Amino acid sequence: MNSVKDRTLFIVTSLIMILTGLIYNPLVTRTFVKIKLLGPENADTYLELWGIYSITIGVVLFLWVV
Q1: Where are the transmembrane segments (predicted)?
Q2: Nearest of 25, 16, 20, 3 to residue 61 by alpha carbon
Q3: Are 17 and 54 a contacting pair, CB within 8 Å?
Q4: Fewer Cβ atoms within 10 Å of its own Cβ: the N or the C terminal residue of the chain?
């Protein structure tokens, strides 16, 4: 964990995870997935869980490196 390259990689990964989690929360994405992929009954819970999961991992990675 000492090299600058490792730290940069982890920080970039964590920020991507946080952004992914934020992108998966809006209504537009939720509605699109509800119509296209999962069917109406599963879309909300799946997207909310994925968003929370992604944000959590991103924050943990970021704090671990910094």
Answers
A1: 9-27, 47-65
A2: 16
A3: yes
A4: N
